[in-house]
Each structure stands twice: as structure tokens, then as C-alpha cells.
User: Fold this.
Amino acid sequence: MADYGAITMPPSDPALSRKTAIVGIGETDYGADYQAERARPEGWVPPTEETLLTTAFERALADSGLRREDIDGITTSFTYGGPPADEVAKMLGVKARFAQANGNIMAGPLPVACAAIAEGKADTIAMLFAVASRSAGRLFGGMTHSTGGVADPDTEDRTPSSYYYYHPWGWSSQAAHWALIFGHYQWKYGVGEEDLFHVARQVREHAMAQPQAVMRKELTLEAYMGSRYITRPLHLFDICVVNDGAVCLIVRRADMARDLAHVPVDVAGWGHSKVKKNKMHVMVREQLRPQLQEASAQALAMAGVSLAEVQHFEGYDASSFHLINQVEGIGFTEPGTGLAFCRDGQMTVGGRIPTNTSGGNLSQAYMQGWSQVAEAVRQLRGEAGRYQVPGAQVSMTNLAQTDQTHPIVFVRGDR
Amino acid sequence: MAAEKRPDRTLGRHHDTFWDYCGKGELRLQKCESCDHVHWPVVQKCENCGEKGFAWDRMSGRGKVVSWTTFERDYYRGLMPVPYDTILVELAEGPLFMSNPQGFGWQDLSADMPVTLSFIEAEDSAGPFKLPVFEREG
Assistant:
């Protein structure tokens, strides 16, 4: 059974708001690494979690302007396994008084690190995420989640049952979840695939401004409609890329973050909500709206800001349509209006809520929510380039799975 | 007709009961003995009240199509030839049930299309079984 790296997230406690700040970010060269993996030139060596996270760490350290000895904590987040956190610290030459594994996808790991800093376990933590799934030839469906057979009644509820339970009918994969939601939405609101195109197009436009995005070619309606289906009604371009890479975020006690290389980006609030019953109904008929509403309200309350003050959003676009679930569910636009909202430019700079401004999972990279946090940091520093949101002060990221959602609110800090 | 090869069912406590009923041509779902919440898929404890006692409620077999997905990607590495269709059926009793259309395809689908239960012969690595699927009503 797949291990989702479940961790206990600290509560959305206002006392923990803005006590930590992100002071350094580092990412691998997603585009170049993707091209190399496809071309496999002579002498090419597949990346490992270790090589990837070393690159991300060194870049984040340089970005922060801190010295190696300023880092006193390491957390590691690996979806498909990696070395223990204390070994990673040793490998990176970091004397860590705090070193621990910390989930995987960007849901709980950042709040966990913030709480550890607030508790005095460390002052400055380098949070590392690395994934080498593409080189490993991973398939995101079928028997990836459970092999069927006899379930262990004590642990079977840990993985969302929809990932594996419908194998006998041939139904599995994340993509199928989003296809099922969009299939219902099409009937309910009378929209078509050509309406959904605008989400993939908008996110691709953002990626085209990123030198290291995996997908940088302009996406036309013809290319989109002509692309193969993965899980009908979703086309290839409605599904995220799969690539190898790593992200490092350096988080530091907020009172020690005011005189560094960059404007600090304060971690201001977070939330979490999970479907408790009738998952298929909540997912397909309600697009996870109750969970998106509840969790974003928690995060905003903890941060002490309103939704109207959020100027930038980084959602989890595992699928184009899942981004619409989030934009509608959190309340940037009304249910049923998300596709027109995107078509009309409301999800880019100049619109209501510039979204996934570095190209998201659909076109930039699939770093399981971590690259979205890096982009939020760039936006709040004012370093986001062509799709910089003018005067950005408040950003929200959101990791939404098929049954739960984890928003985080970031605020540009003081110097 | 030869049994269709299918990816493996989840088996074990309660799961086996579901498939045993299917073997008799009955679609029965777990109903919590404490709060009457009807579950699908199988659970080990009630997701509404947490109790562990269940009765098995027989479904009428009538329903309507709520959504659908057609698999073009071969996630099961050739076990089920692609493309194939899946439908999400709202049973008359309320639960949503993932299944396959029998005798029609995605091109025939429309919102809330009425369907009725039938069973086909199937086989996975645990052996032959009866798989609940849905036909067009009437």
C-alpha cells in the first residue's frame, strides 16, 4: 500500500502566525533535466534523490546569503524513498541539531517546520523535497496503489480507497478522479472540452516565461483538441507533467530573518480539511468545496487576512480541471464560472487572481506542491519576472488531493 | 461466454461478503447497525459514527448515470484492452457506485441516464467472480 507520508500537522494557531519566514529557495533545472532524461545522451547518469537535493540545497543556501553553519535543522520529504535526514545533513555538511523526515507532498511539511522552530528545536531549517520518479518509470495508476488481494483491515483505510478499490472495473489513477469530476461538471454546467482548454493554455503561457519549465511551447486549441486522451474527457495537456527534481526551502525564525539577502516571506497561516464520509459524492458533486472553504477559512483566520486581500494563488494543478475546483471552491469565483473566469484572463496578471504564475504542475514541473511555494516566495519578493503581480503582499498556495486540502497563506515580511 | 480478465479485487474482512453476495446475483452494501449510514466502498468501521456492526442492505439495482470516464491510458498494462468505459451510477438508494456500462458506450451517455444492474462473469488472480455492471434501462 502506498505510503502517503502522513504527518501530524500543527493546528491553525494564530500564535504560530508569522513566527517563521522563508529566506531561501532553490530548485533544480527542471527543463534541462527533463530534456536530458528524454534524450539520454551518452554518459547520462540518472539523477537520484541525493544528487537532486544537493543541487537544490546549494542554490537555496546561496539564495539566502546564509552560511552553511547557520543551518541547524534539516527535514527531508521524499515521496518514493530517500536517505534518512541525519545522513542528508552529513552529506550536505550541515551540523543539524534537528533532523527528521517530514512527510512528502507540500501539505504538512512547512507547518511542521514552522512549529519546530517555534518550539526552539532549530532556528533555521533547510527543508528538502526530492523526487526521481520519471527516471524510475513510475506509472501513476493501475496497481501503483495496492496490488488488490487481501487487505489488512487495520491499515487499509490509510490510502484513499478510491485509489485502489475500483480496480475490478478498471478504474484507478489520479487522472481518473479529475476526469470523473469534469464529466459531471460538463453535464451540470453545459461546458465542453474547448472551454477547459483555457486552463491548460493559461498555465502554459505562464510557463513560457520560465527558462526551466518542462513545457514551453505555445499551446493552441488545435494542438490541445488533437492531443490524445488519457482519461476521457481529459486530454494529455489536462494532466500534469512528470519530471525529476528537487526543491529546497530555507525557513528561519522571523526575528532572525529581517536583515538577510531578500525580503523575508512570512508563513502567516495554514489550514487542513479532509472528507470524512461519502467521498465520491463530495468529490464529484461538490468538487471538494466544503473542504476548500473550511481549510482556506482556517488559513486566512490564522493569518489575519481576508480572501479579498489575497493577490496571488498557487493551486495544485495535477489536472487543469482540479485547478478550477480550487479556484471555485476557495471562492475566487462562483461555482460553475471557473472556466469562463480563466478564459477571460482573471487567472493571470491584471485579472482577479493570477494563478500558477510559473506554470504550475501542468507545464513547469511536478514537484508535488513545492515549486508552487517557491513561486509564492518569488512573487512576494517581487522577483517573479514577466508574470509578477504588481505590489504583491499576500499569496496563498494550496495542495488539494482527492480527499483533502492544505492551503498556506504567505505575507511579504518587513525588513 | 468466457470470463473477462480483470485487475484484482480488494479482499478480506467485509470485502469477501460483498463479493459473495455478488456471486448470488445480489448487490448488497454495508449499512451501519447503529446509524443506518450506507457505505460504498467497503469500510471496516462506519465513517459516520465509527461503529463496527453492519447489516448488508440489498440494492434494487436501479440507478442513474452521474458521471463517466473512458480510459485511453493503459494503466493495467494490457490486462484490460483500452479504450474502455467506466460510469459512476447513483443507486436509487443513494450511494454512488463505480461500474462499467454493459451494451453501450460513452457516446450513448447523457446526464441522469437511467440504468439497471446486471452481472458479468469475471476472473482475477483470486479466481472467477461475478462483477456488477449496468445496462441501459428498458
About this structure: Chain A has 13 helices and 13 strands. The radius of gyration of chain A is 20 Å. Residues 77 and 102 of chain A are 5 Å apart (CA to CA). Chain A touches chain B through 48 residues (CB under 8 Å).
